[in-house]
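B., you asked whether I could sanity-check this one before it goes into the benchmark set. Here's the sequence:
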Amino acid sequence: MKQLLKTITFLCYLSCSSQVEDAGKKAILIEFDSFKYTSIAKFAISELYNDQLQLYNNNPLAKNRADFICTNYNLADLELKVIPKFRLNSKTSTDYNCNSNILEFVEFREFNKYMDVLVYNSKVELITIIRVPDLDQELSRINPLGTLFDYDSTDYNNYLSSQFIISENASTVKQVSQIVTNAKSSFFFQIFGINELLIEVDPRGYAFVHRLGTGFNKDGRVSIENYFCNRVSVDMLRELSKGNFQVLSELQVITPCNKNCPDTIVINLDRK
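And here's what the prediction gave me:
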């Protein structure tokens, strides 16, 4: 009995200590409707799979594609995991600065459901990542004057089908697979328009940034406050919130905020 009481006391101490540690930090609530996102992902992948199968059966050139998902896997054997993409809210364009915490400007209650769908085979191996909806098509819808051309429905479906391929050896797929596998209890999301940054929320509610692509560090993650304070252009984020996605490459010049970085915000995640 004494040993049991000691154990309970110790666990209570750890819990209370954690609460005291976070007591002085601001917290925000994310209500994530995982059922809705997963339902959209399943529908999108099913449609994409069937469209690709139709393309393969009706287009002689497609017969030469050995990397099509539809010819290598049964639809029922595919497992899906969703990484949502949230836009920045309209206040970002005027209010975001070096003293701001980017988490306070993310539109977590997103009406439009944007996401990356991680597609796994029956061995739980990540074989490809599909954006839903397709980014180029979505940018064309948001800002038609900023794109060179529009797809008609047939061309668009054929384009998407040609992208639905086994790409397990692609560097980004490998990176995402490693990050997600090593942090199975974490919640991941991205900011719409910034595809090279994968944001992890660990079980304690702390957010970290993983850089994908060039500069990827398999062992490195940086607190989101530190990363956006010192490595992301304020002007770029302001333009991004306006929907000016085409000018992002012109706004990469960064003036580090240094000592003006914001305080940490803890995320309380409510999965539905």
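One thing to flag: The two ends are 39 Å apart (CA to CA). Otherwise nothing jumped out at me.
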